[in-house]
Amino acid sequence: MSAETVARLHLVLDNIEPAIWRRVDVPVTASLKMLHDVVQAAMGWENCHLWHFEAGDHRYGVPDPMWSESGMAAAKNVKLAALLDRGMKELVYTYDMGDDWRHTITVETVGPGEPDVKYPRFVAGERRCPPEDVGGLPGYEMFLDAMGDPTHEEHDRLRNWYGGPYNPDDIDERFTRRAVAAIAIRRHAGKLAYQKSRPQ
C-alpha cells in the first residue's frame, strides 16, 4: 500500500486557558465534512449542533436551501487539499452557534503518511472539551467553579445535569483514539468497496 499525503493539524478551542487542544493527522483528500467529523471525535463533541468552517473569505458547512444568499458552500464538496493549494494554513471551525465554540485549526506539516496506517489518526491532546449546552464560555467557567467546589450552590444541580463528576484535565485518550480510528476504519472500508466496484 502506498503512502498517502497527510496534513498534521493542531486544533485549539479559542479563549480558554489552560488550552484545550488536539493534534490529528488527516489525509488531504478528506472533505471538510470529514474534517468536521474528525474535530467532533477528537474534541469529544457530540455532533448535535450546527457548524461551519471559515477559510479566508469563504464559509463551508451544510447550506440551508431556504437561505441560499448565506454564501455557505457545501463542506462535503470541498477537499482539504483544495484549501492547501490556495495557501491556507489556518481555518476557523465554529460549533454550536448558541454556545459559539470557536476552534483555530493550524496546518503544522503536510507530507507522506505511513503506508500501514489508516487515516485520520489522533496524535495527542490535552484537557476535556466543555459539556454540550453548558452556556458558552461564561457557562463553562461557572460549571468548572461549581463542579470543583462541593459547597457551591449549583454543585449538586450541575453534577446531576452532567451525570457525574467532571475532570477537565482528563481527555479520555483511549475513547478519543477509538472515536477518530472509527472514522479511519469507515474511510478504509469505503475505499476498498469503491475499488472492488470498479471494472477489472
UniProtKB/TrEMBL annotation:
SUPFAM superfamilies with a match to the protein in the record: MM3350-like (SSF159941)
Pfam families: PRiA4_ORF3 (PF07929)
Annotated ranges, domain Plasmid pRiA4b Orf3-like: 6-172
PANTHER family associated with the record: LEXA REPRESSOR-RELATED, TNPR PROTEIN
UniProt-recorded name of the protein: Plasmid pRiA4b ORF-3 family protein
